[in-house]
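Tokens as discussed.
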């Protein structure tokens, strides 16, 4: 019975050794998966940093565009005021010309009346 017991012990040791080997292989595979996962996490971290830089650049560009829009609005407001002033001046000139034309017409009528009166004498 001693030899059978020894064979059983050897068989148990062999089975334990096989299980240990399988466990070591599984641990190796898990270790490899962990390394791959770590590499992926590092790559994702790099991508996140790139995205953050792009977001910052976009933010700066938006601020610049906002300033440009504000400047353009100010310029448009100034142009609108200048157009309004020019319109007022043109109306003043038109009114002045109208008055001058009326005065000229009245003067011509007066001159014609005087000439007519002088021709009568």
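Sequence:
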């Amino acid at each position: 019975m001693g030899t059978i017991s020894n064979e059983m012990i050897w068989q148990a040791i062999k089975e334990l050794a096989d299980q240990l080997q399988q466990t070591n292989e599984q641990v190796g595979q898990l270790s490899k998966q962990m390394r791959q996962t770590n590499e992926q996490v590092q790559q994702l971290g790099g991508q996140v940093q790139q995205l953050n830089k792009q977001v910052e650049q976009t933010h700066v560009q938006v601020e610049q565009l906002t300033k440009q829009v504000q400047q353009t609005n100010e310029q448009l407001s100034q142009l609108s005021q200048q157009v309004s002033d020019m319109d007022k001046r043109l109306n003043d000139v038109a009114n002045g010309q109208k008055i001058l034309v009326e005065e000229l017409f009245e003067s011509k009528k007066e001159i014609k009346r005087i000439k007519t009166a002088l021709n009568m004498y």
